[in-house]
Amino acid sequence: MRKIQTCFFESVTALPGYKLGVEMGTGAHIDFDFTSRLCSVRFGTLKDEAVFRTAYTDGNFILFQKEGEIKVKISADEFMDLVLVDRTGEFPKRT
Fold first, then answer.
1. Domains with residue ranges and CATH for the chain
2. Is the entire prediction scored with pTM above 0.90?
3. pLDDT of the chain along its 95 residues, tens only?
4. Whole-number Å distance between alpha carbons of 42 and 22
């Protein structure tokens, strides 16, 4: 019998330097660097380290809060887009 995946995210840990450690429901682990996204309208709130350090998951979203109010909510689809697509305008240097 196949196991039905009940959550996308197992755990989320705020790491130093605006990095996020994400354990996916599949068992994969992703360390994601948010620094290039902090100047965007969508993620600018996360410049506040106190907000960034509140990172947690309900299994379906990565959430950040301030004073009990959710400030940033990232779905699994959005997170994978952040991981896979560089929208910062910075392109890798060719060597």
1. 9-80 (3.30.2020)
2. no
3. 565 557 899 999 999 999 999 999 999 999 999 999 999 999 999 999 999 999 999 999 999 999 999 999 999 999 999 999 877 666 556 66
4. 19
